[in-house]
Amino acid sequence: MTIQACLFDLDGVIVDTAKYHYIAWKELANELGFDFTETDNERLKGVSRMASLDILLEIGGLTFDDEKKQQLATRKNDRYVEYITRMQADEVLPGAKDFLTELRAAGIQTALGSASKNAPTILERVGLTPYFDAIIDGNSTSKAKPDPEVFLKGAEALGVKPANCVVFEDAEAGVEAALAGGMKCVGIGSPLVLAKANLVVDGLHQMNVALLRKSFSQTT
């Protein structure tokens, strides 16, 4: 394949905002009268906001009507947004900015493919907006990963065929979305969790254009 574009998930690949989700959920749980641990939080990974709230309420043994649940979900999200609007450039994960810079120098386009509706805010706060040719977020998609919609829209925005794209993902559902879209995928994290990815590394600090081309130039 000829690599013409790289598409990136945001959380866990470019930045780590998971800690802010956890803090916001924990504060909500404490307000409702129960604790929410990091172990509990593992159940929320890759889960939508409302489904996450249902899990949280299950843990607390609480039941509310839909209107109240919407209020609680909004309260959690407002608090999360407060945290991310204070993010700084030093919260970019190791190697991310260097790799993005190298890709652009090599003429390889870049796009962000994230379910987060707050992705543009986060990129702006950490100073990475200029490093992406296209940003596809939760405001422009309707289907969650493992549906490939977000990555297919990214490829379309760049004018690149899916077969010429490599996706960088840290979640199993994201890897499945990339493959379902006809793209290659680099997993960021555990080889056990991301076994379906074509290549798995610890983080973008281990990536460079030479490795990218070596890994995928002979694949079909």
From TrEMBL:
InterPro entries: B-phosphoglucomutase_hydrolase, Beta-PGM, Beta-PGM-like, HAD-like_sf, HAD-SF_hydro_IA, HAD_sf, PGP-like_dom2. Keywords: Carbohydrate metabolism, Isomerase, Magnesium, Metal-binding, Phosphoprotein. Mg(2+) binds at D9, D11, E169, D170. One of its GO terms (biological process) is carbohydrate metabolic process. Its EC number is 5.4.2.6. Substrate binds at residues 9-11, 25, 44-49, 52, 76, 114-118, 145. Coiled coil: none annotated. Binds 2 magnesium ions per subunit. The keyword Metal-binding applies. One of its GO terms (molecular function) is magnesium ion binding. It catalyses: beta-D-glucose 1-phosphate = beta-D-glucose 6-phosphate. The active site is at D9, D11. Its cofactor is Mg(2+). Gene3D superfamilies: HAD superfamily/HAD-like, Putative phosphatase, domain 2. The record marks S114, K145 as: Important for catalytic activity and assists the phosphoryl transfer reaction to Asp8 by balancing charge and orienting the reacting groups. Belongs to the HAD-like hydrolase superfamily. CbbY/CbbZ/Gph/YieH family. This is Beta-phosphoglucomutase.
